[in-house]
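Dear colleague,

Thank you for sharing your sequence with our group. We've completed the structure prediction you requested, and as agreed, I am returning the results in plain text so they can be pasted directly into your records. Please verify that the sequence below matches your submission; if there's any discrepancy, let me know and we will rerun it promptly.
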Amino acid sequence: MELYWEPKGGGVFELTPVAGDVKWFSSAAGQAGYVEFEMMKGAADLRTGDGIRLALSGADRFLGRVFTLTAGPDRVKVRAYDQLRYLLQKYSYTFTGVTASAMLRAMARDFRLAVGAVADTGYVFAKFAADGQSLLDMMLSALKQTRENTGRLFVLGDEAGRLTLTDCRNRIRPFALSAAHNLTDYSDVHTIDESAYTKFEISRTAGSGREVRTLVNAPAMDRFGVLLWTGSAGSEESAAVMDSRLRQAERRYAREHRSFSCEGAGEDVRAGDVVAVMAAGETRPYLIASVRHAFAGGARHTMKLELERFA
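Please find the predicted structure tokens below.
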């Protein structure tokens, strides 16, 4: 791991020898990524707004700005955020005839944010309006609706200082997490207490009443009972579109919810990557929802991950 300071006045200075323990966090679930570390007072004259860059084996993995400096008697604690931090600001937008990809580009343009690879999310919103919401909540809502209509999962992130939007099918990594190989502890959760449903309904206003379309997964209902998922539709959505959304929801939710949390030896992964998890005698793909990397003394690399089943 290499850590660099890029002052607003120019220049690049390595902080690895003076930074001590370094933490790097990334999330695919609506949180800004950050790098955090401590150093002795006077080791470097960091200021808010300065750039912090973290690299692994020479490849940039994080580029953000110092948002907080917390000084004690002898040491200074530094936290730098990536560009997702700027999407936590609240604003109002009304979009017509756009995709989530186009929404992200518009936000980046308005808030002077750098953009990297942005996948075409495909699904076009006839109208998307949000009043006084955070930009990040708007994007997460747009991506959720895109998934409900297409079945495709996209993750919003920041890759070394540029906002990205990627299809998770293109983020599959060629290695596995297993207790026998690289994990020191893990928790494998099977539950129907969240994100598990057996009956699916979408409704919309129709004249003076409501039109409701329903789909039931009988085997799941026999096993788990009635667990109701509900959605709403606009007047412009056809019955075929509503039925397609119901089928997408059934494919995603008519089963027990699986999540996996673990810690172990560090790997070069970030939130949004898909990895294989070997547990309980089976191997399945999981999406990394969040990962906390720790570099003890700038060297020994460990990580803690939260994962959700990917399928």
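Summary note from our side: The two ends are 32 Å apart (CA to CA).

Kind regards,
the structure core
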